[in-house]
Amino acid sequence: MSSNATSLHTLVLASTSPRRQELIRLLGLPVEIVPSNVDEDTPSDWTPEQIVEGLSRRKAFSVQEKIAGQASGSSIVVGSDTIVVLEREVMGKPTDTEDAIRMLKRLSGRTHEVFTGVTCVRVSDGESITSHRVTQVRMRELTDEQIKRYVATGEPMDKAGAYGLQGIGALLVESIDGDFFNVVGLPVSLVSVMLETYGISTP
Ligand SMILES: Cc1cn([C@H]2C[C@H](O)[C@@H](COP(=O)(O)OP(=O)(O)OP(=O)(O)O)O2)c(=O)[nH]c1=O
């Protein structure tokens, strides 16, 4: 029997995102969900790497502090943050439908980068590791009419850059270069490598 089977490490996902909640289960370990509710403001001079890594740390540590003492010592909190970057512009989730339309017009016919930062924190001692991945996404040329119809589906509203590659948004994307799961909000193969630093192996 493997050591994982006997030690039962639990992953505590610091997220309200339904995509992340689904993806983290691919790692094959017990999962608990504890949303972080942190302030997502960042200094205006931060680079995309600093934003996603900094926010993933903020999310993971806020939950680690909340549950320290309650959760099992071998639990690992996982926090994550995703942004879309076009040239110098950083796009988070759209504030309203007008903002979603504006973002999609900017992304149309161009290649942008999706950054996702991940932080793992061991609950028992606060030992942490932070990393990020970048995926390039090329969007088709979109007409104003196509953008309006897509925004009317409601899908863009809770997603960075106002599209969901895992949903109807797939129809807007021409190609990607890099990790699909990074775009969707949780690069599970990176998380798997990060867990190995705690001696936790996944399939
Ligand atoms: C680009 C893209 C983003 N997204 C989502 C992933 C994230 O949920 C969201 C970016 O917002 P985040 O602020 O990273 O996360 P969140 O507010 O949804 O959840 P939490 O902070 O509680 O973890 O955009 C997709 O689902 N598909 C995509 O193709």
TrEMBL record:
EC identifiers of the protein: 3.6.1.9
Family in the record: Belongs to the Maf family. YhdE subfamily.
UniProt KW keywords: Cytoplasm, Hydrolase, Nucleotide metabolism
Keyword Hydrolase: yes
Top EC class of this enzyme: hydrolase
One GO MF term: hydrolase activity
Site (Important for substrate specificity): residue numbering on this chain: 19, 82, 166
List of catalytic residues: 81 (proton acceptor)
Localization in the cell: Cytoplasm
Xref: CDD domains: Maf
Catalytic activity field: dTTP + H2O = dTMP + diphosphate + H(+); UTP + H2O = UMP + diphosphate + H(+)
InterPro entries, per database record: ITPase-like_fam, Maf-like
Chief site of localization: cytoplasm
Keyword match Hydrolase: yes
Cofactor(s) demanded: a divalent metal cation
Protein task: Nucleoside triphosphate pyrophosphatase that hydrolyzes dTTP and UTP. May have a dual role in cell division arrest and in preventing the incorporation of modified nucleotides into cellular nucleic acids.
Protein name: dTTP/UTP pyrophosphatase
